[in-house]
UniProtKB/TrEMBL annotation:
GO annotation (BP), single: transmembrane transport
InterPro entries: AAA+_ATPase (IPR003593), ABC_transp_ATP-bind (IPR050319), ABC_transporter-like_ATP-bd (IPR003439), ABC_transporter-like_CS (IPR017871), Oligopep_ABC_C (IPR013563), P-loop_NTPase (IPR027417)
Protein name: Oligopeptide/dipeptide transporter, C-terminal region
Residue stretches making up the ABC transporter domain: 8-252
Matches recorded under PROSITE patterns: ABC_TRANSPORTER_1 (PS00211), ABC_TRANSPORTER_2 (PS50893)
Lineage, opening ranks: Bacteria, Bacillati, Actinomycetota, Actinomycetes, Kitasatosporales
Pfam families reported in the protein's UniProt record: ABC_tran, oligo_HPY
Gene Ontology MF: a single term: ATP hydrolysis activity
Amino acid sequence: MSTTTPLLSAEALKVTFPGRRGAAPARAVDSVDLDIRPGEIVALVGESGCGKTTLARSLLGLVPPTSGQVTFGGKPLDYASRALKSYRKRVQLVLQDPSGSLNPRHTVYDAVAEGLRIHGYAGDEREAVAGALSRAGLRPPERFFLRYPHELSGGQRQRVVIAGALVLEPELIVADEPVASLDASVRGEILALLLRLRDELGLSALVVTHDLGLAWNIADRVAVMYLGRIVETGKVEEILTAPQHPYTQALLSVLPESGAEPVILTGEPPDPSRVPSGCRFHARCQVLASGEAERAGVAEACRTKDLPVLAGGGQTQVACHWAVAAAKARA
């Protein structure tokens, strides 16, 4: 998979928003490289406010980057309206809350057919809608055509949202917290559906989530984001069985199946308009607070020395002075 040309890439991507009342601009996405290859599922993981949703919206063309670029199929994304319309047929968004993303006055048929109508689909609309519903696991599809969202369960509504994305036969979907609002029993069904779509259709996916457990169940690769930048990335098995970054270790420690002592991070993530010097995680880092970084001789670097931007490919990488020092010591 690592030798395959990326389907979607972010290169040195930055998204800043104007500060309030003359404050410095907020660096929501701050120099991110990220590749997604054909048939690959990448999980973008981090706390609320870390910039992962802004990054996803920028990859969709909804938020133009302040600098850097997004490429799709090797070509830079064109932000002209006609080009974006064509692009969004190939890259579709699946939202977190199916109740909020479905119009309560539209039937299931109209909800799924909406994308076809926007893009001027010339084929058999009924056949396309039925096919999308069927692929999303709503069978027989005709039984759902005239139902309204309030007549469906939460899992069925999420399947309708997924069918609305699939009906345009995209190459990639961006799923923002796709199972966050669902019961535990239904979450597994939706995750299994996404995996089946990847296997049957060759669909790629970027799954945005705060839940490392979800990443473990669905992703080929994980990118951990903190304060606008990816701080650790690699194959999901490597990152989740041997996390190197203290932030990843803290996120993983709260999963019941981890067996580790939960790490409680102090404070809130810093304001993205005031990114700290050195490692952007150092003010909350349990390794620095415990004196481990001092003993490794990197405490001053943690506080003052900036870390390099991680490459967007599939290799395992970490942006952490202490983890790099520990790896050198082991070698």
